[in-house]
């Protein structure tokens, strides 16, 4: 399997695992809310997965809408990300999925359109501070 495909499968697995965890309560560490806009060559980037991975602890995930806007979720019930530095991964690739239950949830694979420096070999970082954070990512297809 290609490294990018392995990364995407790992991220999807982590997404499902972490977002299914219970949130809230006194067990939740201090979080900063994070939202922003992801663009590619100055145009909104829709349907991209944004992952903030702290040095230690649970990652936070978000998905861009048609205007490139995203908001990070720490759990299903808690928006935000851990306070501190994060490695950021942005990907557009999607693995194919065949719904064997007959529920019509089949999904075609979509190849990565972003350069590896934004995902498999990310160079993106962000610092999450207490309170509200607006962190935009103006990506370029070629540099």
From TrEMBL:
Signal peptide: 1-21
Highest rank taxon of the organism: Bacteria
UniProtKB keywords: Signal
Name used for this protein in its record: Bacterial Ig-like domain (Group 1)
Organism annotation: Gimesia algae
């Amino acid at each position: 399997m290609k490294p990018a495909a392995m990364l995407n499968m790992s991220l999807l697995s982590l997404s499902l695992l972490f977002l299914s965890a219970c949130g809230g309560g006194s067990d939740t560490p201090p979080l900063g809310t994070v939202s922003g806009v992801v663009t590619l060559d100055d145009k909104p980037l829709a349907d991209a997965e944004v992952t903030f991975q702290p040095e230690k602890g649970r990652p936070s995930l978000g998905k861009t809408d048609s205007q490139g806007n995203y908001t990070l979720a720490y759990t299903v019930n808690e928006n935000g990300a851990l306070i501190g530095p994060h490695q950021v991964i942005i990907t557009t690739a999607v693995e194919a999925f065949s719904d064997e239950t007959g529920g019509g949830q089949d999904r075609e694979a979509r190849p990565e359109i972003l350069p590896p420096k934004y995902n498999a070999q990310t160079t993106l970082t962000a610092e999450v501070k207490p309170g509200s954070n607006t962190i935009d990512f103006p990506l370029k297809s070629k540099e």
